[in-house]
Amino acid sequence: MNTIQLRLQNELTGIKNAGLYKQERIIQSQQSAEITVNNKTVINFCANNYLGLANHTQLIQAAKDGVEKWGFGLSSVRFICGTQSIHKQLEEKISAFLQTDDTILYTSCFDANGGLFETLLGPEDAVISDALN
């Protein structure tokens, strides 16, 4: 084992010994309040499926229809390759519903946080976050 591999292995061992190593869970079922992990049914406390729509039959069908018409996702982020008209239509509908001037949809919480922080915070502001966040 070379020097870098040894250093990385030691670091990983330290992370495991500190109880900070995250083992990936393999989910064997649809995402809902209960999921199957390691062939056992467990309560899913850590999902972003707050509204329980991840396996709603109408949304699944709408997704299938959308894939047939539009393909599977964009080839890059919208500000590089462009925004499809269907995304703009959804943003307009959300704006009308919320009675706002405009809406921007982000593809991930990470991107949304970046957009939020850049918009609302300045050089004099600070974000304090837990080390494990």
Q: What is the radius of gyration?
A: 21 Å
What's the total helix number? 5
Shape: extended
Q: Segments where pLDDT lies below 50 for 5+ residues?
A: none
Helix content: 40-55%
- Please outline the major beta sheet: 2 strands, antiparallel
Q: In sequence order, what are the helices and strands, one letter per element? A: HEEHHHH
Structural class assignment: mainly alpha
- Overall number of structural domains: 2
Beta-strand level of the residues, as a percent range?
Answer: 5-15%
Strand arrangement within the widest β-sheet reads 1-2
Average pLDDT reading: 89
End-to-end distance? 33 Å
- Record field, number of beta strands: 2
Brief write-up:
It comes from marine metagenome. The chain has 133 residues and is mainly α.
Structure, described:
The protein is mainly α. The protein has 2 domains: 1-51, no CATH class; 73-123, no CATH class. The protein is built from 5 helices and 2 strands. The protein has helices spanning 3-17, 57-70, 78-81, 85-98, 109-120; strands spanning 34-37, 40-43. It has a two-stranded antiparallel sheet with strand order 1-2.
Task: Kindly list the characteristics that best describe this protein.
133 residues, mainly alpha, 2 strands, extended, AON_synthase_class-II
SSE inventory with pairings:
Blueprint: H1 3-17, E1 34-37, E2 40-43, H2 57-70, H3 78-81, H4 85-98, H5 109-120
